[in-house]
Each structure stands twice: as C-alpha cells, then as structure tokens.
Amino acid sequence: MPDNKRLLELALKGLETERSRIDEEINELTSLRLQEVGNERTPRKTRTVVAGGSVTGHALTGSKPK
Fold it and tell me: What is the spatial distance between Cα 12 and Cα 5, in angstroms, rounded to a whole number?
C-alpha cells in the first residue's frame, strides 16, 4: 500500500509540473497576442463575400487565380 501512495504522489507532482508548464505557455501566448493587437495600426478589414464566391483560392493557398 505505501508503494501505491508514493506512486500517486509522484503522479500528482508530475501533473502539477505539467500544469505549470501549460500555464506558462498560455501566459506567453496571451502576452504575444496582446502585443500583436497593440501593434495593429489599422482596424482589420472585414471580408465581403460575393454571392457564389468562395474563400478558397489565393487568400488561403498563396496562389493567385488565373
């Protein structure tokens, strides 16, 4: 039984460490996102969709339509 308790303690410690890493990564990504938003000088343009049009094509793939 003591072996099981020790295994549970080690597992919990590992989970806490992993959670700490995840929290740090979330904080870093949030910080980067806030910096990007702060660096935007103009508001984002909304895309106007023409009837029958699609979002595929050069906007997503980088290739220009022929």
Answer: 10
